[in-house]
Structure formats: structure tokens, C-alpha cells
């Protein structure tokens, strides 16, 4: 390994470029006409609360007009204090997440310290930019990144476009085909004084609203007991809620929807 190389993706690009997601299929036309048939994942939401951030995702993956998976994994631990959610072409997005996890682990081992949250966000932007060739063929993977900023003692959210442009988001954000509906729900639900549980419930409500209007977003499956993935990142690190923890929160939301199908109303003042 070259001395001083703190970027694993740069090291891989130098010695085994064919292993990078953005280069392995670049230039190939066999996938371009069928990119809509590759499994796609949506929707991811993130909400901040004082001292941390919640990231959640629905479980549905689609291939064209078909449901290809009902229990897809879309939210992952990036490192001890950050999470990454994926939307878009599942295969490319999953490889991007695995490479990002290795990137952060590699940096920590080489440098003997962890990247700042902004530094992690910048590394991810560089990796997304390297996938631009595939994105232009229709194999788009756009993650949502969030974590605990130890310097400012708060949660922070970063969004990206397919070219790798990074944006720092405030309070809440969502990506994926159901994002416009989820974001609309979060606009009426968000409060500055959220507790962690309040933020989790707001995410569940937002995903429920997205599933109401977007066929690619899956709502809670009460019969199969398939619930949204819920993760919380705060000063104590990354925590993925178990199904036993998520279940009563989902039951509460679904029960309330039986009396008010459109969900809770925003206060007027």
C-alpha cells in the first residue's frame, strides 16, 4: 500500500480500478435500455432533534412495475457516528455503501483519527461523482448521509445529486421517489423541541404518507410485520432500533390513521 494514502477508493482506483462501482460497468450499453428493470429502492427520510438525528427508510424495492423485494435494507451504519441511506439502483447503491464504509475505516486506521462529519460527507460526494458514467446510463444511486457532529453537538444531514454535489440540509430531508410526499409531511410535523422518539414517529408518519401516494414506497406491512428501518445517531453513537422497539410506534401511527386517514394536522400557530 502506498504510504500516506488515506483514501481507500483512491487506492482501489490506482491498483484495481475495475473493482470500483462506477468503472466496472462504465461504457457498457447492455444495461442502459433495461435500467428500469434493475431493483430500485425508495424512500429515505432524516429528521434532526436536539442532540442527534434519525434516519429511516421504507422496505420496498421495485423493478419496473413489479415489487422485487418487500424487506429491502436501505439504511446502514457508515461508522460509529453516522448513517447512510440509499435510493436508486440497489446494486450500485449497495456497492457504494460498502465502499464508503471501508473508506471511513481505512482512513481511521491510516491516520489514527476519525474524519469530521463534513469530511465524511465530502468523501461520499467524491465517490458519487465517480459513478457519474453509470448515472448517465440510468443506473443512478443517490444516498442520504447523516450523523452526529461532535464539534457542534448536533445532528446534521447531507444530500447529494447524481454529479456528487453536496448540500447541507437543515431540520429534515428526504430522497427517493416518495420524497416529495415525505417532505411535505415533515413540513407540517417538524418541531425544534423534538425528542428522539418524536423524530422517529415523524419519520414513520412521513413514510406512511409517501406510501399513500407513491407506488414505489412501501408502507408498514402489518400482516408480515415488516416495519421501516429506524436508526438514531447521537452522542452515544449509531443505534438501529429492533423490530420490537419499532412495532409499538408503528402500531400507534396505524391505529391513529384509522380515525384520521390523512394523519395529524399541523398546528396553526
List the keywords.
269 residues; alpha+beta; 5-stranded antiparallel β-sheet; 8 helices; 13 strands; 25% strand; globular
Question: Gist?
Answer:
With 269 residues, the chain is α+β, with helices and mostly antiparallel strands. It has helices spanning 8-15, 21-24, 90-111, 117-129, 132-135, 179-189, 196-213, 243-259, and strands spanning 40-41, 44-49, 52-57, 61-63, 66-69, 75-79, 82-89, 141-149, 154-160, 166-169, 172-175, 229-234, 237-240. α3 (90-111) packs across α4 (117-129) and α6 (179-189) crosses α7.
Describe the structure.
The chain has helices at residues 8-15, 21-24, 90-111, 117-129, 132-135, 179-189, 196-213, 243-259, and strands spanning 40-41, 44-49, 52-57, 61-63, 66-69, 75-79, 82-89, 141-149, 154-160, 166-169, 172-175, 229-234, 237-240. The longest helix has 22 residues, at 90-111. The chain starts with 7 loop residues before the first helix and ends in a 10-residue tail after the last helix. The model is unreliable at 26-35 (pLDDT under 50). Helix 3 crosses helix 4. 36% of the residues lie in helices and 25% in strands. The protein has 269 residues and is an alpha+beta fold. The strands form two sheets. Strands 1, 4, 5, 6, 7, 8, 9 and 10 form an eight-stranded antiparallel beta sheet that branches. Strands 11-2-3-12-13 form a five-stranded antiparallel beta sheet, covered by helices on one side.
